[in-house]
Amino acid sequence: MGRGWGLLVGLLGVVWLLRSGQGEEQQQETAAQRCFCQVSGYLDDCTCDVETIDKFNNYRLFPRLQKLLESDYFRYYKVNLRKPCPFWNDINQCGRRDCAVKPCHSPTSLRSVSRLSDLPFVSHCFSASHEETQKAVLQWTKHDDSSDSFCEVDDIQSPDAEYVDLLLNPERYTGYKGPDAWRIWSVIYEENCFKPQTIQRPLASGQGELFSSSLVYWLVGLCVEKRAFYRLISGLHASINVHLSARYLLQDNWLEKKWGHNVTEFQQRFDGVLTEGEGPRRLKNLYFLYLIELRALSKVLPFFERPDFQLFTGNKVQDVENKELLLEILHEVKSFPLHFDENSFFAGDKNEAHKLKEDFRLHFRNISRIMDCVGCFKCRLWGKLQTQGLGTALKILFSEKLIANMPESGPSYEFQLTRQEIVSLFNAFGRISTSVRELENFRHLLQNVH
Questions:
Q1: SS3 letters for 411-428?
Q2: By mean pLDDT, which of 41-50, 103-112, 275-284, 436-445 is the weakest?
Q3: pLDDT (average), residues 412-417
Q4: Which of 249, 357, 403, 424 stands 20 to 30 A from 262 (CA)?
Q5: How far is CA 171 from CA 143, 166, 227, 324, 446, in A?
């Protein structure tokens, strides 16, 4: 009997030691593992893997893209931040100073020139000769047909539209959060993303975020186009949250303001445990968004290669150098070995495909209108720019035949991009490229966090 009890006690001891060891192993799981547990290998609906994107973006594309976006042509974006919200009236404006946007102001020497609002960028920020100014006006107002647009674009002729220097108004944490911020994303996901009519996706707003343990299941029931639409919006949301976590206000006193990486904020948005498994999927959707916009840039190369196209700023030497850099970047993009295959989109019955494409466009246009309901002006600025950039990318992907049939010289009437579309396209992709680069930084920062 004593021998039997001794054996039983020994077995229980072994079991306890094994469980204790497992507990220690679970405790040793790092925050990096919890956030990036699914962010590796091949992406859903794609033949590309995360590691290939990281290497291509971080070491070949990102540095040159940042240099391009610092140039005069790309750093100025015209936007109307005073447009009223078309969906509700009770907007609580963010009163924090970090929510404010610093616009450019028109020099006196240019105020008498006709149609200043049509200038590429000089009208509110720099001076230029009247002759060059008139050429710019004519060049950029010839083609502005928005019938094929995926966005509700601002009227840049409006007196409320102003040029903004994006480098002086960087996207970063502003303190804008809570019910108002949550309401924006709630409307986007609930009313503008495709989902089966019989399913109501549960929402929780503990951190102003949207969580759904059932989301992955109803996505499986959607066609590839509708699934892709959701993943694009989720990827955009994730990218914005990466920026806010990477440029967080860490210190604010009379002496200085210090911005930097906030790993706690990043964990709250992407940790697999804290987000009920949703966070890592959001990061995968960010990579999906990257591939979509990368594909659009590779498709639009012929438009920018045309000798008639110029990045006009009034500085001829700089304009030539910037076009050379732009084409260098686009050729690099073209060389990417594992581009997304958009031929799977709208490949079924022609009538159904046409209706689905139109639904796709209308849903996205509606999302672009929701950006005018954002109460933080700096958040509104970057939301409008990135939404228009993604809309321009979609326009390019759905205009492949029109791009192929463009004349080598002279005006292109079938396919055209306005300056607003060009600036938003590259800046939006620059934001996503920055997010992918920042994920590498967060991986290192979270290695030793438990």
A1: CCCCCCCCHHHHHHHHHH
A2: 103-112
A3: 82
A4: 424
A5: 30, 8, 28, 27, 23
Catalytic residues: 376, 379
275 is in an annotated binding site: no
**Residue 237 among known ligand-binding residues:** yes
pLDDT in the model for residue 71: 93
Q: Let me know: does 47 contact 429? Beta carbons within 8 Å.
A: no
Q: How far does Cα 189 stand from its chain's mean position?
A: 16
pLDDT mean over 31-56: 77
Contact 219, 147 (CB under 8 A): no
115 annotated to a ligand binding site: no
Q: How many other C-beta atoms are found inside a 10 Å radius of the C-beta of residue 28?
A: 9
Cα 122 from Cα 313, distance rounded (Å): 7
450 is known to lie in a ligand binding site: no
380 appears as a binding residue in the annotation: no
Residue 254 one-letter amino acid: W
Mean pLDDT of the chain: 77
Q: For position 398, what pLDDT does the model report? A: 84
Amino acid at 303: F
State how far the Cα of 382 lies from the Cα of 236, in Å rounded to an integer: 11
Q: Which of 410, 177, 150 is nearest to 292 (CA)?
A: 150
User: What number is the average pLDDT over the span 325-330?
Assistant: 97
Between the CA atoms of 250, 256, 257 and 259, what dihedral angle is there, to the nearest 10 degrees? Answer: -60
